[in-house]
UniProtKB/TrEMBL annotation:
Residues 37-100 form the DUF202 domain. InterPro entries: DUF202 (IPR003807). This is YidH family protein. It comes from the Bacteria. It is found in: Endomembrane system.
Amino acid sequence: MGIRNIFSRQAKERIKEGLEVQEKQNLEVRDKLAMDRTKLANERTLMSYMRSAFGLLVAGLTFIKLFWDDPVYVWIGVATIPVGILVAVWGFHRYSKTKRIMEEHTSTYMPTSPIRTELVKQEKLDSSE
């Protein structure tokens, strides 16, 4: 006597329906976690740009301060400061662009489970009032 013979047909159908609901909920959790990972990756990328920009600024100031009597190093220092500022601006631009795209995608996302869908609809109604 196997496991197949233990459950009645109705019990099997209830278990199957429960598994389908659980699968939908698991997909929603996975989607939410994937979006959170994407947001964190975007923030990490911004911090990397800022770290690089800060390093270039400090390097430029160091060249100017330590080698003030050698014009070649002073010009290298003067050149790295604007590059550092450009890296910071470019990094913030990319961060903002990616954040905007993610917000557009998340605003159009609608969960699939009935309970979650009703909650989201109620939240949207409450926020619009």
